[in-house]
């Protein structure tokens, strides 16, 4: 049922911004020594001439950072407790995050986060107040492994994926408070544009 939208997205025409995002990722990979200069030149040529997402995606598929491939690093644990917890603004995204809603709830906003990962594993425990997650346009959200519980899961994200954009892989349970995943709303987008200008 999800295969057809994925094929449709792959056939979509890539924009100049999509090509530039892949070019930037390739340059960073070369600077880190993950591809040599000859391979960089080849991939840059392919990226700049790509017309669809399907042509762009293979150019960065093998550029997974070492810490992600090894599954290393300490998980980021966010606990809502009595008063709630928010992780927003500029912050570095680790490969593994655990969010426990508690009584106050947890809100995780990835829109200004620094993320060079291909996959982020986010274990949610909705508990009483739930977990709210805000992801940029173009990110993929996988939620098949989440136990819906009493609160349920609301995924309001689109299926259109930007080449090279992260995949947020959810697991855990929604509890009574539920889990909400969405893109930035109108007010948040206006605020973000004000910060970037």
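^ structure tokens above, recovered residues below v
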């Amino acid at each position: 049922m999800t295969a057809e939208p994925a094929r449709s997205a792959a056939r979509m025409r890539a924009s100049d911004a999509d090509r530039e995002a892949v070019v930037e990722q390739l340059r960073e990979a070369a600077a880190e020594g993950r591809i040599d200069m000859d391979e960089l030149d080849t991939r840059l040529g392919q990226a700049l001439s790509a017309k669809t997402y399907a042509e762009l995606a293979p150019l960065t598929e093998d550029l997974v950072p070492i810490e992600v491939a090894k599954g290393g690093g300490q998980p980021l644990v966010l606990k809502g407790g009595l008063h709630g917890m928010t992780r927003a603004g500029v912050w570095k995204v680790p490969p593994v995050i655990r969010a426990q809603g508690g009584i106050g709830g947890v809100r995780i906003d990835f829109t200004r986060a620094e993320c060079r990962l291909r996959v982020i594993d986010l274990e949610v425990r909705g508990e009483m107040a739930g977990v709210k997650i805000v992801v940029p346009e173009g990110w993929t959200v996988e939620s098949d492994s989440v136990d819906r519980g009493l609160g349920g899961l609301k995924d309001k994200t689109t299926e259109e994926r930007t080449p090279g954009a992260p995949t947020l892989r959810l697991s855990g349970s929604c509890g009574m408070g539920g889990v909400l995943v969405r893109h930035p709303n109108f007010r948040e987008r206006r605020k973000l544009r004000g910060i970037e200008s």
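Confidence is low (pLDDT under 50) at residues 1-8, 66-71.
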